[in-house]
């Protein structure tokens, strides 16, 4: 098994640790809530102690959990995955060095894109622009009302801009880009920013300031300059084209991020999807994504050029009625490769690929599990027999403690690996990763004939690729322990989280047994017919009475 941890501060300012276990059930990985524990301090020692306490609360069935653990999954915080003083270091000291630290891949993906934002000036400009637009309308109902009025004049239904900073997962950025480029939304934002840039000094904008007049006069030049920058960015043809390009890129990245957040994601599936993502995004530089945002934008620019040439008009290029400046004429030509846009796109994709594939603290053992990715096996049978022999030897040595404890014969495991490869290549090459290993682990005679090598497959399937389940657990905690229920005991919160995430759905839940239990077993007297305040009918009756 593997276990996943994460920490958070609840509404009552108490530090909490949530612990999940990842096990196999009928050949498929399943995440199960182990516990939700309050800690006095979010130090590695306290977090590790809280994790042990959560397992101990489950009783004898988990008394030997340290002997079964093969990996720890968490976000990249040093308190969790620090090699010297983190939770993983304490766990390895007690349970063995074979335990694999695994940095949550959705978190890694998010951090990778943040590093791209810092390293790429136009990417940083785009993030800042979207963040400024979001702040303008999120914190000012009047600005949002004005934007809706402009949208109504244009005949479009404008949406509230989405934020891009401070969000947990990358699909938020994709939604912000889609909203920004929505037909009519782009134009409405441009006209409103033009209005704000031109009227920042008048009484209308001054009335929105709540500070002293001296501060207001000092800040007004900055406000005008900010709105002017937004307006100029929206007018820049290269920047607008880059927005379309990044929308296509983030569309692919968001799908990958959503895949990684699934509870049943396994390592081969994640690795294959990552390789596909890198190939897809690299191809976008040479050729825009078919039917993507950038290809539609460039096609519209070329259409405008042909129409103007046929009519003999002056070359003026627009996007949603906004006249574009800069390299608009070059983008409308047939050779886009010579433009500044291509250089920016190439730099963005290179930095993205570098950030996503950068080396992490993930051990060599994780990389060696690629030998079980049947899509990457060689076609030649002789090459297939020898494929992965060295990596298999490393895995058998690295997990020797766990394998020996479970009675695995390493020599037989090597022989079974050869026969397993030949069997899969001959009969099950078309199977998906999950269905293939579910079949091998649960069906006879496969699970008996390859029982030694399948122990390594078992380890691979429970590797904690994603810790998104911990984030979902804390989301449930925030719904339960709200401002009006801030005094709930941690045990009660854990029980309610368990009911929410592991209990039946609302449609399937029969409340009669729970109501009967509440009514008959409560420590206090139950008064279901008690009314704290008289209803309007009773008030009227009292007023009409003698």
From TrEMBL:
* InterPro entries the record matches: HATC_C_dom (IPR008906), RNaseH-like_sf (IPR012337)
Which residues, by range, are in coiled-coil regions?
none
Which protein is depicted? Zinc finger protein 862
Any one GO MF annotation of this record: protein dimerization activity
- Domain HAT C-terminal dimerisation as annotated: residue spans: 445-497
Instruction: Note the SUPFAM superfamilies from the entry.
Output: Ribonuclease H-like
**Pfam families per record:** Dimer_Tnp_hAT (PF05699)
């Amino acid at each position: 098994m593997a276990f996943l941890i994460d920490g958070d501060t609840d509404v009552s300012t108490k530090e909490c640790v949530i612990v999940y276990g990842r096990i196999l059930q009928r050949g498929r990985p399943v995440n199960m809530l182990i516990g939700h524990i309050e800690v006095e301090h979010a130090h590695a020692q306290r977090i590790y102690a809280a994790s042990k306490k959560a397992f101990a609360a489950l009783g004898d069935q988990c008394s030997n959990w340290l002997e079964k653990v093969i990996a720890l999954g968490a976000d990249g915080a040093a308190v969790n995955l620090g090699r010297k003083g983190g939770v993983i270091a304490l766990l390895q000291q007690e349970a063995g060095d074979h335990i694999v630290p695994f940095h949550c891949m959705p978190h890694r993906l998010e951090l990778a894109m943040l590093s791209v934002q810092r390293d790429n000036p136009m990417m940083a400009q785009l993030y800042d622009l979207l963040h400024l637009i979001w702040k303008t309308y999120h914190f000012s109902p009047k600005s949002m009302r004005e934007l809706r009025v402009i949208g109504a004049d244009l005949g479009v239904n404008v949406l509230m801009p989405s934020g891009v900073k401070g969000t947990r997962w990358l699909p938020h950025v994709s939604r912000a880009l889609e909203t920004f480029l929505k037909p009519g939304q782009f134009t409405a934002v441009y006209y409103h920013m033009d209005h704000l840039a031109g009227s920042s000094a008048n009484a209308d904008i001054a009335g929105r300031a709540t500070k002293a007049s001296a501060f207001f006069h000092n800040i007004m030049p900055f406000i005008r300059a900010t709105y002017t920058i937004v307006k100029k960015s929206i007018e820049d043809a290269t920047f607008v084209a880059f927005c379309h390009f990044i929308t296509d890129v983030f569309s692919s990245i968001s799908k990958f991020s959503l895949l990684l957040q699934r509870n049943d994601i396994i390592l081969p599936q994640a690795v294959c999807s990552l390789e596909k993502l890198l190939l897809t995004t690299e191809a976008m530089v040479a050729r825009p994504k078919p039917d993507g945002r950038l290809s539609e934008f460039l096609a519209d620019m070329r259409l405008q050029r042909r129409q103007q040439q046929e009519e003999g008009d002056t070359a003026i290029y627009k996007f949603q009625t906004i006249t574009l400046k800069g390299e608009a004429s070059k983008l409308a030509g047939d050779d886009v490769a010579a433009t500044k846009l291509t250089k920016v796109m190439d730099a963005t994709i290179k930095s993205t690929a570098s950030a996503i594939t950068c080396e992490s603290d993930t051990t060599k053992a994780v990389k060696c599990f690629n030998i079980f990715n049947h899509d990457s096996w060689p076609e030649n049978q002789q090459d297939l027999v020898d494929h992965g022999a060295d990596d298999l030897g490393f895995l058998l040595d690295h997990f020797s403690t766990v394998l020996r404890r479970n009675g695995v014969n390493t020599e037989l495991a090597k022989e079974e690996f050869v026969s397993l490869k030949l069997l899969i290549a001959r009969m099950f090459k078309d199977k998906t990763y999950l269905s293939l290993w579910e079949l091998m682990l649960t069906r006879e005679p496969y699970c008996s004939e390859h029982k030694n090598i399948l122990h390594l497959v078992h380890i691979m399937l429970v590797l904690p690729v994603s810790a998104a389940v911990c984030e979902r657990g804390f989301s449930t905690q925030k719904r339960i322990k709200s401002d009006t229920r801030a005094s709930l005991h941690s045990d009660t919160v854990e029980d309610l989280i368990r009911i929410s995430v592991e209990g039946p759905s609302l449609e399937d839940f029969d409340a009669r047994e729970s109501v009967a239990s509440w009514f008959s077993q409560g420590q206090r007297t139950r008064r279901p017919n008690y009314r704290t305040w008289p209803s309007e009918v009773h008030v009227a009756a009292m007023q009409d009475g003698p």
